[in-house]
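Troubleshooting log. The previous run stalled partway through. Resubmitting the same two chains, unchanged.
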Amino acid sequence: MSQYLILIYDDEAAWESAPPDTGERIMRGHQAFAEKNGAAVAGGNALQPTGTATTVRPDGADGFTVTDGPFVETKEALGGYYLVEAADLDEAISLAKQVPVLSGGLEVRPIMVFD
Amino acid sequence: MNPAVAAAVAEAHRREWGFVLAATVRVTRDIDLAEECVQDAYATALRVWDERGVPAKPAAWLTTTARNRALDALRRESTLRRLMPMVVENELVDEPALDGDEIADDRLRLICTCCHPALAPEARVALTLRLVCGLTTAEVARAFLVTEPTMAARITRAKKKIAGAGIPFAVPAAAELPGRIDAVLAVVHLVFSTGHTAPIGDRLRRGELVERALDLARILRALLPDDPDVAALLALILLTDARRATRVDAGGQLILLADQDRSRWDRAEIAEGIALVHEALRRRPPGRLALQAAIAAVHAEAPSWEATDWDELVALYDVLGHVWPSPVVTLNRAVAVGFARGPAAGLAELDALGAEPQLAGYGYLAASRADLLRRLGRLAEAQVAYQEALALMDNDVERAFLERRLAEVQPG
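Second attempt completed without errors. Output:
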């Protein structure tokens, strides 16, 4: 078994303007995902919107530059993730297909293993 | 060396590479190691077959040799890691214990891995030619007119993704299979079209690519005998390539379909293709490839250019446009209309395509318009269209044809 991170990207503006029942539907989708795939899910979290993000970059001298906002500004931002156990990429992809999204999508990344 | 042995090894290389590699990957679970072992097995074959004669089952001999080589390598590695290689030890075989289904599964596994949707499309093509067809990196690079280092980097990146992301060496689940087979067919179709009319270069046809595409289609047909899309793709390749001997003259000049010597078309391939088209069309509604093959069949069966059933072709393009809405289909339909109802009708259809953005830069649009204008006697406009087509097309044989036409329509 390998571990994969399923990153959930969605349009925050679409989230904000969505009617309340949409948010409820997505949350029920996450509950259903967790119930169905509990054995495969090793972890996961939702993130606060990118308005709360702070970026920290080495300034090239000895210090750091700390700025307001996410590392990369994109229309669809990282909003949460699942850490899953899967036999291979196909299995990870089939798990990802069950993760509810509003208008965005998912990125599947294998976790690096250091021998 | 006995030339018959060299020929037998070359033949086994072309026909059995994918089979031997697939069976070896099953042991190694590592594509690079498997490739090394298979290359080694072919090199050993050159020597051993020369001494002892060509074995009755060359593929089985090569597979056994490659697998044993792989098991040796794995055992060495295990010993180095001080792990007892018990499992590996027990699997050592003298004769490969392969039944028919296992062979089929291994090859389909390899093809599905090479054409996995998580790989970039150009990497799928490169991997399939390299791993299933046994082309060297240099050969794949030449086929797609990129430098060898570029192609080597593309293949290395794809192999890293297979290993790093855990793309399985497996036939997908039944629910996933149709979509995955579509991706496989797209790769084979691309290999064929690139070989049938090379997008660039001094040859109209790249026979080595056409032959690999035909090999792949035949392998898929053997593996998935009930799949109508597979039957359709094999039919399309056979029916289209049956004209290969007549597409250029002795001087290498392009000969249009209208002027080809139909008595020199490959009748055996046409007969095989027609039977496959009938089979593929039994599914309702017919798929895109089945309709494309049916269109090729209408040409293949027409006794002459004049006797071609253009109305039937227009009707087939109509159905194809429903199944696969694409401006390229509309373009081909307009050309068929130009022969069914005359160049004015064809041009009207073509003009309806207008400034279709997907066709911007598509030389065949300008070339088709030029031909319709030429037949209508609108020579000044034809001249502009030929020049436009020439600016967009990079195959030397097609360009030479367009140059000749351009000279014809230019005021003396």
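Takeaways: The first strand of chain A starts at residue 2 and ends at 11. The CA atoms of residues 86 and 92 of chain A lie 5 Å apart.
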